[in-house]
Amino acid sequence: MHHHGYLWTGPKERFDNEALRRSPHPEPPPAGSRPELIQRYREVAAEFPTSDLPPLETAYWLIKPTSSIHGTWGETKEAVAWLGERLAEYTHRVASETDRDTTRLALLVNSAAERLEAGADVSLGFYLERPSYLSLALVTCSPNRSKPGLVCPLP
Description:
Layout: E1 2-11, H1 12-15, H2 35-47, E2 69-73, H3 76-90, H4 102-117, E3 122-128, E4 132-141
Helix pairs in contact: 3-4
């Protein structure tokens, strides 16, 4: 088991477009469906895996481009250290004073370690100034507990 780290920052409006962050249904629309429904399914099926937007379900980071991976670690403590470093890097840009509280951030990092040790994924998000959004994720791989059918994106 190992962990991949993902980081995304961008405009809040883009992040809020959930249709682009939702994985396509596993089955295409049935034959005879409205053409616009079939076309939309094809668009989503083609765009979702290549989009850099954070998926609604954290495990689906594993099907995103490998260029989205910001690090891979065999040890939980290394993955959590990366998470803590990213939180420290972005803290000054976080919009909410509560979300900048160092005690709260330390608790988030400790909680992340516990979840990774249990084989779960970690996903954190913060609104930044301008308004922008920061998404951080640590995804457990080989296998992923919530989506065991997803293969590791790295050889």
